[in-house]
Amino acid sequence: MSVRCIQDGLTGFVTLDNPPVNAIGREMRQGLLEAVAWAEGLNLDRVIVTGAGRAFAAGADAKEFDGPPLEPYLPDVLDAIERSFVPWIAAINGVALGGGAEIALACRMRIMGPGAQIGLPEVTLGVIPGAGGTQRAMRLCGLETALELIAFGKPMGAKAALAAGLVHAVEDDPVEAADMVNTEELLCVVPTWELPAPEMDVAAFSAVRENLAKRSPGQIAPHRAVEVMEAGLGLDFAEAMALERATFLDLKSGDQSRALRHMFFSERAAKAPADLPAAPQITQVAVVGGGTMGAGIAYACLSVGLSVVLLETDADGVARATENVERLIVAGLKRGRLDDSSAEVLRARLVITDDYGAASGSSLAIEAAFEAMEVKKEIFAKLDAALPADTILATNTSYLDIDEVAAGTKDPSRVLGLHFFAPAHIMRLLEIVQGAQTGDRALAMGFGLAKLLKKVPVLAGVCDGFIGNRIFSRYREEADFLLMDGAVPWEVDEVMEAFGYAMGPYEVGDLSGLDIGFANRRRQDATRDPKRRYVPIADRMVNEGRLGRKTSVGWYRYPGGGGKVVDPLIEDLIAEEAHFAGVTRAEIPDDVVRERLLLAMINEAANILGEGIAHSAADIDLVTVFGYGFPRWRGGLMHFADAWGVVEIVEKLRLLEAQDPVVWAVSPVLAECAAAGMALTDWRAKG
Ligand code: T1G
Which stretches make up the 3-hydroxyacyl-CoA dehydrogenase C-terminal domain (predicted)? Predict the structure, then answer.
């Protein structure tokens, strides 16, 4: 039963109870409608509605969005609550989000617990509030606050909600406080729907639209929410509610909502495989290497309460590592994530030393040193010698072969890859790389650390670049092919920014440094297929010292002050390389640039799926969105491919394959899905 009703004297207590977060499904809507009638059949002077467990209500059950709306519809239920002659009070004990917030807004009064949150985050699922949120919120807290709350979907805490006028009080025990409200006072509160709509404020609407263009580029729902609120000012409540509902239903069936719901549920499904043992307890972590990544990993671990022994090679390394971690702590203080005392606690839990023996109490050691196999082997030999036999050993390598690293240790079953993404304390993706001999305990430790750090864990097999970097390498390779064929870096970047990336591949390259790709290509020289097309433009950039931001010149020039400018010399350099290669360049239309880059990534990702490097298409979506900036509102690379259509993708790939059968060999997984009319998201390895 997802709605429980109990009478106590003149008070009716209604509890929303659908674990774990009281999502509002059909049963709860029906239960609420019956609760209105139940309360009106008794001699009550109020109904207090609250949530069981840690939430008030997490909103409409998004699992129901794929199907047609089922009666009773939430707007009708809330209309019954709002017009009931027994006034309802919302005792907001935990998160009241989306439809959960709308239940509260339809109540006559709202009392929040100090730790509760209230919000209308529907745009994060590609829809807008569909049960009165747009119309009731702006009547209660005014246009500007309602626009911010709805267009950006960020919840409010209790203090802010009280100040905004969304709630009447903040009390330690909201249920008890609701029961103490003076009946006369309660009856004097005007039902929300009877409140006047706010005056038109042109400036507020243009400001929010300007803000949306910067903060939510490409997303449709936020703009539709603003349109509904703007139109609502000129309509009566019922007409405005009808417009809101129609807009919600329209968006719910749209591509962006399907994509964002796919991401929402895929992210929550990213957990340790059910057959793994429980994660061993982690209290102390050793991190080897105090450079940017190592310091970021150390800081991430410190921030969740772990102790860290940060290992360096010598006194200079210790000094550098100390500076790097301190810089992150100071940044945390500046951003208000830390205060002086919590910063001191972090410092007290950190030891930075060149003595590996100091790390002997660590459950896990994470190597984040220079990306060279010999360096890693040497470090793992030292870890092997210094740490207990049950300490799990992880490498943060971005590309290198975990099995080769493990082979040098006494017990390869305790070796795995934990691939963090820079900045390691901010980026949520963690690729958990399973070597041929990685044991379950090591994997359980990896997933346990991911949960502690609130990372999105994705299990990956061993190959060059695992999941993300392998796709990214193919993306970068195709981009350079496009340069040779006629494009220029800034065109390619503009095309992919228009697609929804925050940055195109060339700006990203300048940010991370062109020497990283150069080193990887040199590492791959010995094994590269001699028949595979190779473009030396990026190599020439590095040979000429154009490494990107770190040398103030790369694909762009960086004249100082953070900006970037196009460098016409690049066009000459590309033209010269094309001349040497005997290639006649020609202008390439934007849609061809975009297609070739997306097809290259999709084909590579399908191979990664087919080889079992990734366990599901959804995992690849998580990697591309959380690690590489693929637009979330497109659902990740594989969801996007399914929405595009696998049959059309394979047709286009076949044409490219005819031109270059090595680079564009069509993935068997794509061919199989196209032939079977199957979505990539549904593809499963045989056996
Ligand atoms: N629908 C279905 N399932 C949901 C859900 C929802 N709205 N919210 C959470 N779950 C599941 C989730 O998949 C997970 O399942 C479990 O609950 C715990 O969630 C009409 C149309 C509330 C802050 O956007 O933000 O209302 O993995 O792991 O970290 O206008 O869940 O255990 O099987 O996230 O403590 C608007 C979405 C909906 C809020 C809790 N509401 N939820 O975070 O737990 S649209 C939202 C959240 C709407 C109305 C419109 C978070 C949370 P499983 P969790 P958490």
Answer: 465-558
| CATH match for 468-682 among 3.40.50.800, 1.10.10.10, 1.10.1040.50, 3.40.350.10 | 1.10.1040.50
517-554 tens-digit pLDDT: 999 999 899 999 999 999 999 999 999 999 999 999 99
- DSSP string spanning 360-409? TT-SEEEE---S-HHHHHHHHHHHHHHS-TT-EEEE--SSS-HHHHHHTS
pLDDT of residue 1: 67
- For the cut 80, the answer to whether the pLDDT of residue 561 exceeds it is no
Q: Which of the following CATH numbers is that of domain 3-253: 3.90.226.10, 3.30.2310.20, 3.40.5.10, 3.10.180.10? A: 3.90.226.10
> How far is C-alpha 240 from the chain's CA centre?
33
Q: What is the pLDDT confidence band of residue 43, given thresholds at 50, 70 and 90?
A: confident
493-to-312, 477, 497, 498 alpha-carbon distances in Å? 38, 14, 6, 9
| Token digits of residue 596 | 């070739």
Would you please indicate which residues are annotated as catalytic (active-site) residues? 102, 122
Q: Which residues approach ligand 1 with their CB closer than 6 A? A: 20-21, 23, 55, 58-63, 74, 95, 97-99, 102, 121-122, 124-125, 127, 129-131, 133, 265, 268
Q: What is the pTM of this model?
A: 0.95
Query: Which position has the token pair 């196999």?
Result: 373
Instruction: Report the nearest atom of ligand 1 relative to the CA of 62.
Output: 1
> Is the complex ipTM more than 0.85?
yes
Give start and end residues of each alpha helix (H) in 537-666: 537-543, 568-581, 590-610, 617-628, 637-644, 646-659
Q: In the chain, what is the straight-line distance between the N-terminal and C-terminal CA atoms, in Å? A: 40
Q: What pLDDT shows up at residue 399? A: 87
Query: What's the CATH code, domain 284-460?
Result: 3.40.50.720
Share the mean pLDDT of the chain.
95
Q: Which amino acid is it at 310?
A: L
pLDDT single digits (tens) 331-357 = 999 999 999 999 999 999 999 999 999
> Contact at 8 Å (CB) between 415 and 401?
no
* Annotated domain spans of the chain: 3-253, 284-460, 468-682
Exposed, middle or buried by CB within 10 Å (0-12, 13-18, 19+), for 182? exposed
Per-residue pLDDT at 80 exceeds 70: yes
> Hey, what are 550's tokens?
């770190």
Closest CA to 303 of 248, 364, 350, 266: 350
CA distances from 40 to 13, 54, 461, 593, 595 (A): 13, 28, 61, 64, 61
**Residue owning the nearest CA to atom 34 of ligand 1:** 268
What are the residues whose beta carbons fall under 8 Å from the beta carbon of 417, sequence distance 6 or more?
A: 394, 395, 396, 397, 402, 431, 432, 433, 434, 435, 460, 462, 466
